[in-house]
Design brief:
single chain, 342 residues, mainly beta, two-stranded antiparallel sheet, two-stranded antiparallel ribbon, 40 strands, elongated, Galaxin-like repeats domain-containing protein, Galaxin_dom, signal
Length: 342
């Protein structure tokens, strides 16, 4: 073998051995962000980002944290029931109490108790189970239950009998049939007198022919009957003035206190009816007067006198010829006016 061949062979063997030995070196793979293996991501989440239950970490695949109590997760569907666990597929959670669904046909909760919602006559009222109330039970307030087919609930507290009633209703602490009776003042049950019956106090009257005013029953005085205080009146022919009915006095009726009057021929002066005319158009206290011929002096009507009629207290005087001194009409004695009459 020549020297050149031996040297070449040695070089080939050295390169081959060097490549084969490279497998023992550690190689760090750099994965693209979106191409990182899912197993690696899952393992990192399970180990590096575990949630806390109180101050302890736990594995959500095998454990549950219920009110800071760390409990084993028995099945994949197990969840918390307050401070404990249950499986909703086979159990029911009632305010922290767990019951087996297999014990009931239609399991329901009533507070911390479970009951069969398919049982006839059973109902839950304010977290209390009531039984034996027929095919149509209902709650009466928070503490009672009743059968709606034979009983009635009054004032959300009293269960009263209603057997045979077409339209059961309550009247205070009693039950009655509203088809044939009336409840007056929430205390008196009285029979109806006809299809138009109604209560007037503790009595029954016929609304088609009668009217109730102030707790008293009157025959209707007309087709437009109404109440005026404690009395009845006809709005067509009468008018109501402060609770007192009166006949309409004319074509332009109006009220003056409790009195009715005609605006055409009368006027209202301080609650009193006074005569009106083309010249008499003003009031002076309770009286009417003509401002052309009279003056009103402090509620007293007086005839105009002289060229300068004026008032002096309740008197009319001629200011051109007389003086008004301290409410008295006097004849001036000198240019000093009232001073000379002191």
């Amino acid at each position: 073998m020549s020297l050149k061949f031996s040297a070449g062979l040695c070089l080939v063997l050295f390169v081959a051995l060097s490549n084969c030995a490279s497998f023992s070196r550690k190689v760090k793979l750099r994965w693209p962000r979106n191409a990182r293996p899912k197993t690696e991501i899952r393992n990192r989440r399970q180990v590096g980002f575990l949630p806390l239950c109180g101050s302890a970490q736990f594995n959500t695949f095998t454990q549950l944290c219920c009110d800071e109590n760390l409990l084993p997760k028995m099945t994949p569907t197990t969840v918390c029931c307050d401070h404990t666990t249950y499986d909703p597929l086979h159990q029911i959670c009632c305010d922290g109490a767990v019951y087996q669904k297999s014990q009931y046909i239609f399991p329901k909760c009533c507070g911390q108790d479970a009951y069969d919602g398919n049982t006839t006559g059973t109902i839950c009222c304010s977290s209390n189970i009531h039984t034996g109330h027929g095919p149509s039970p209902a709650c009466c307030g928070s503490d009672n239950a009743y059968n709606t087919l034979t009983e009635i609930c009054c004032d959300q507290s009293n269960v009263l009998p209603a057997v045979g009633y077409t339209s059961p209703a309550c009247c205070g602490t009693q039950s009655y049939d509203a088809t044939s009776f009336l409840c007056c003042n929430n205390m008196m049950i009285v029979p109806k007198s006809g299809p138009n019956s109604a209560c007037c106090g503790n009595f029954v009257y016929d609304t088609s022919t009668q009217i109730c005013c102030g707790g008293m029953i009157f025959m209707k005085p007309g087709n437009a009957s109404a109440c005026c205080g404690n009395m009845a009146y006809d709005r067509v022919t009468q008018m109501c003035c402060q609770g007192v009915p009166s006949m309409k006095p004319g074509a332009n009726p109006a009220c003056c206190g409790i009195f009715a009057y005609d605006l055409t021929s009368s006027m209202c002066c301080s609650g009193h009816v006074a005569p009106r005319s083309p010249s008499v158009t003003m009031c002076c206290g309770m009286f009417s007067y003509s401002p052309v011929t009279h003056l009103c002096c402090n509620g007293v009507v007086g005839i105009r006198v002289g060229l300068m009629p004026s008032c002096c207290s309740t008197f009319v005087y001629n200011a051109a010829t007389h003086l008004c001194c301290d409410g008295n009409v006097v004849i001036p004695m000198n240019p000093n006016g009232c001073g000379s009459h002191a």
